[in-house]
Every structure is written in structure tokens, then in C-alpha cells.
Design a protein that fits this description.
single chain, alpha+beta, Double-stranded beta-helix, globular, binds N-oxalylglycine, binds manganese (II) ion
């Protein structure tokens, strides 16, 4: 059974948000979905992500994702193994997010993207730590793994230790942003292809030094700027901080235009800002959204967030294999 309240009701389902952390799950509890803004994001209850999912539960999550692009599942005190099993319901794992970190240095199973500010011993990363530097890229609006020829589908982020003084994660609806463009702009961008690379996103923050083998690993990939979502049939803007060029355009003109589009697409009306509660499990569709994390005092506060990710079906544009 699935209960969906169609319209966004700013007062919430009953005017307050219940606390789920202490409650036992009732397997017969209906799945309920409550929109969080007019365009993007919904809160979904009635699923226990620690347990194997039924086909109906997987379908309810996919339906919710197709519609809202971001789902918040509160009260999911999940282990790493349970998070991996939950993630596999939604496609093959996208691995290697920490590939620049030596495996002996990893805190988590390599299938995870460790977006915490902790090292293997559980100490906060030092100010000049290389992993911390790379993670600062998450403060720029982006779509996960858009620098790969087969980019990410769902990202599933578990809030193990959360911050409320900063550290919100914001999501922008690239479908609503596309829909709001005027007809001339839609026609102009329809067949444009962009280059994405970690070299470009890191370059925006002033990283210029890459080892030769890093440069090879970060070779730009191409993606359509306008993509059609297989689940909803909706078109969206495929924007990301990893973009550094539009094929056939002078680079400064391309980047000025990409900035205009990103500014348009991240206006407050298209954005849901998530303030974390411990054990929230937040799922977003990288094919339909951009996201970023907001600044917090990561040198003094611990934030332990663990991401698993699934791969999308294939490249958005024909290109030579990497
Ligand atoms: C990510 C990411 C945001 C956050 O996990 O892909 O961008 O809030 N994280 O940590
Ligand atoms: Mn990300």
C-alpha cells in the first residue's frame, strides 16, 4: 500500500515531524510520501532500509524518485553492510569515489564514498589534508560522478553523525529549471555537449597541481547538456561543477553561459535544503538534480556521512572508451 499526498503542504503531514528514532517498524505500516517543496524532495516513511526490500518497496522508492528526485527516509539506523544491500536494489554500485586515497588509508569499505571529515583512526582531518581539500569540491553545485562517461544514478547518503550548525545539503531540481527556460534557450542548448572533469571542478577552487597519472585518470568526458530521464520522461539540465567546456564554443563564452544556467537552476524556488537529523537516509537522483554541502566548522565538529552510489544505464553521448 502506498499513500501519496499530492500537493506540497508547508505545514507538513500533521503540522509537526514525528520522531522515528525510538520506534520499532511495523511491516504492515503503509508507505507514505509527503512533498517537501513545490518541485523537489519528499519525505518517505514506512520503509525499513535495514531489511531486504520487497519488489513493491523498491517500486515505491523508484516511483518517488521519478517524481520528487530526492527522498528523505528518516530513522534509518543502518549498518554499512545494510546500506550496501539497500543500494544494490537500485542498480550496479558506482565504486572508486575514493580512488585517489591509498586503500590502506580508507576508513570505510571502498564501495563507499567517505564524505566525513574523519581519517582512518577517527580523527578529524587536518586543515591541509589532501582528502579534505578534495572534499571541499562538494561545496560547489555538482552531480556525482559526472566526470565519468557513465555517471551516477542514485546517491544514498546516511547521516551517522550529523551537524545542524551548517552542513545542510542542498538539492536543486534540474527538471524544473529546464522547464522554466524560454523556448529560444531550450532550442539553443538542445544538442550541446559539455566536457566534465575533476580537473575543472578542482581548478575552480585553485587546485592546479595534478600528478601525471591523476591527469590521465581525470581525462574529460562528454555529456549532453540536456538529457531525458528514463523514469519520468522529463528533460533536465545536466549541469555540474565538473563542466569546463562546451564542444565547439570558445571556453570563456562556454563557462560564462554555464554559470548563467547554473545561477538560473539554483534559484531558491528550485531548491530543497536538507537539515540533517541523525539516521536520515537521503537518496537523490544525479540524473535530475545538482547538490552541494554548506560550510560548517569541520576542524572542530565531527560529521560522519557515508555515501553509496549506483551507476546510470550508460553514457549520455557517444564517446571513446576511457
Ligand atoms: C556527496 C556530497 C554532500 C554532503 O556525498 O556526494 O556531495 O552533504 N555530499 O556531505
Ligand atoms: Mn556529491
Amino acid at each position: 500500500m502506498s499513500v501519496v499526498s499530492d500537493a506540497y503542504d508547508p505545514s507538513g503531514p500533521s503540522g509537526h515531524l514525528p520522531s522515528f528514532a525510538e520506534e520499532a517498524y511495523d511491516p504492515l505500516m503503509p508507505i507514505e510520501t509527503h512533498p517537501l517543496t513545490t518541485h523537489i524532495g519528499a519525505r518517505m516513511t514506512g520503509i525499513d532500509a535495514r531489511q531486504p526490500l520487497t519488489a513493491a518497496e523498491v517500486a515505491a522508492i523508484d516511483d518517488g524518485m521519478n517524481r520528487y528526485a530526492v527522498l528523505v527516509l528518516p530513522g534509518q539506523a543502518i549498518s554499512d553492510q545494510q546500506q550496501l544491500a539497500f543500494t544494490r536494489n537500485f542498480g550496479p554500485l558506482e565504486e572508486g569515489a575514493n580512488s585517489t586515497v591509498r586503500s590502506s588509508e580508507l576508513r570505510l569499505d571502498p564501495a563507499f564514498a567517505d564524505v566525513s571529515n574523519l581519517d582512518k583512526e577517527g580523527h578529524k582531518l587536518a586543515r591541509d589534508n589532501k582528502r579534505r581539500m578534495a572534499a571541499l569540491g562538494n561545496r560547489l553545485w555538482h552531480s556525482d560522478a559526472s566526470f565519468r562517461a557513465v555517471p551516477a544514478k542514485y546517491s544514498i547518503l546516511s547521516g551517522r553523525i550529523v551537524t545542524t550548525d551548517g552542513g545542510n545539503t542542498e538539492f536543486a531540481d534540474m527538471r524544473a529549471a529546464y522547464d522554466a527556460l524560454d523556448a529560444a534557450t531550450k532550442a539553443e542548448i538542445e544538442d550541446l555537449v559539455c566536457e566534465h572533469s575533476l580537473i575543472y571542478s578542482r581548478g575552480q577552487l585553485g587546485f592546479a597541481e595534478f600528478l601525471p597519472d591523476e591527469r590521465v585518470a581525470m581525462k574529460p568526458v562528454r555529456h549532453r547538456l540536456v538529457r531525458t530521464h528514463p523514469g519520468s520522461g522529463r528533460k533536465s539540465l545536466f549541469l555540474s561543477a565538473h563542466i569546463g567546456a562546451i564542444l565547439g564554443w570558445p571556453q570563456p563564452e562556454a563557462m560564462a553561459f554555464i554559470r548563467d544556467l547554473a545561477e538560473h537552476a539554483t534559484q531558491p524556488e528550485f531548491v530543497y535544503s536538507h537539515r540533517w537529523t541523525q539516521h536520515d537516509l537521503v537518496i537523490w537522483d544525479n540524473r535530475a538534480t545538482m547538490h552541494r554541502v554548506r560550510r560548517f566548522d569541520d576542524l572542530s565538529i565531527v560529521r560522519d556521512m557515508r555515501r553509496t552510489t549506483t551507476r546510470s544505464d550508460g553514457p549520455t553521448v557517444a564517446q571513446e572508451a576511457a
